Request: fold
Amino acid sequence: MKLGTILEQILGGRRCATDDDIRKVFGDYHNLLRWLAAFLIEDEELADACVIDACTIAESQTPDFHEWLVHWAARATVRWALQGERDRISELAHAYEQQEPVHLTHPPLSPEYFVLLIRHSDDIHARLDVLCRLVLVLRGIAKDSCEELATQLGISRSAVEQAYCVAYHAIELASDQAVRGAEVRGWHANNEHGLADSIA
Reply:
């Protein structure tokens, strides 16, 4: 059962979302939430526990959030993943604060960049520390402001901006590599076609 069907039943029946509604959403979006957890905390067992705990947190929210079910599920997953990383985030933020200020403000991820993140998540993950990954998810995907992130993570806005700049650059590298890969495949295809014509 997809989210649209669940919402139609909830809104059509003028009722609040139930625990069963939430479980159905987690069933549909389990893979996405598990990807989110694994991308943030690098541990498959912890990722599974994170998704389970996120369901518990989401169920404890007020019952009338309707279309916010997936929003709360993702937020709960991020919140759980953040719990064990506070000290590391503080250390990284201090290091980022020592760098030159960012002069270019990057926007949240476009749909094209979001697809690149999903397709190349292993490579992008390997390039980024946990602070960059959290900022990438919360600024790039959830579209939180830098001020909101600084408050949520307990760090300075300049550290958030630096981390997001690094994360955004990793997406740009993935984009460049995807373009170069397409060009190489096109070159090989053209040359194979030319070779076949010459042999014929």
The CA atoms of residues 99 and 162 lie 8 Å apart. The chain has two domains: 1-84, 86-200. The two ends are 55 Å apart (CA to CA). The chain has a mean pLDDT of 76.
